[in-house]
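Progress report, Aim 2. The chain analyzed during this reporting quarter is listed below.
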Amino acid sequence: MNQSEMKIEKKYRKDNYYMNTSPYLRIDYFSGTGNALTACRWIAQNARDRKMSAHIQAIDRFDRHSIKKAPDKALLGFAYPTHGFALPWFMLKYILFFPQGRNAVFLLNTRAGMKIGRWNTPGLSGLALLLPILILTLKGYRIKGLLSLDMPSNWISVHPGLFPSAVEFIVHKCHTNVDRFSAKILSGHRSIPWYFFVFLPLDLAVSPISVLYLVLGRFFLAKTFFASKKCNGCKICEDYCPVGAIRIIDDRPYWSFYCESCMRCMNTCPQQAIETSHSMAALMIALATSLPVSYYLSVFVNEAGLTLGDSAIYISGLALTWLLTLTIIYVLYILMFALLRNPLINRFFVYTSLTYCWARYKAPGIGIKDFKRVKPPS
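Predicted structure tokens for the chain:
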């Protein structure tokens, strides 16, 4: 075999390593109300139909030391929702802590799908795919598939739950898309849809919102949840929170800054006792945006005779604004949590919440038992 033939053989073996059907499929997922979980089950079933071994596992309350590397030739997937045009901070941490490897990897992010006529309207991914692509590529993985799946939106804090007919329509469309996607990646081929590149300029355009959500927005949203007097102290919200952000204090749920706004608690509460306080959210925004921190910082610098450049003042102003905003949100939430003991005040927050009138959402076929944490195989 001459040198040219050896190069061709070496290239063939390299391509064969990544292109042949993997004997094992593993998907690590984060799911609030079952959209990502449902998509994972569709892919896993398609894999089993091909006589592949398939395992899906939730990353709920993961410990960085418990993250296990996938088998060398396994096809590895990560599935998660899109929050604030980004992936959930909890999933981002998981990917950052994930061991290095050379596996073929696919990414699946669910987005806020809606229905207009016969059209399943698309959402935007922002950095939900771009950040994991960068991190996993630097870790040595090869991106073999990308899928943005417009499953029914579950963001009940912003809009009412979709009608069952709309949910059925959207889920059927998404199931078809997943079957088409999995047929390619499970046979060893690359699957990166054309619309990924079409939406790329828009995703980059909203990336500042993604960053703002990760550094501030998620903390704000975490402190808008409260429980009405319908709460019976069953502790389901605490037990099933995927990130352990809910604690029961004085027989009532308390949401910490760790909350990812995955909407699991609100959409699975048997009493429908969990609401979003839109009145408190408005107050938080009003107070936080009324702070002229940069102006007062520049006045302080001038009065103190300090020599700081405009950029230093600007960065310091941003940092102080961030810190003061979080402080305002925290203090207001503590105040609201204390006042909610009063039946009249509790009723005020309930009746000024739009979620009081809105239906809840879980992915079709998904129940609370589907969110039990399953120990991954050793």
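Residues 234 and 270 are 9 Å apart (CA to CA). The radius of gyration is 23 Å. These observations will guide the mutagenesis work planned for the next reporting period.
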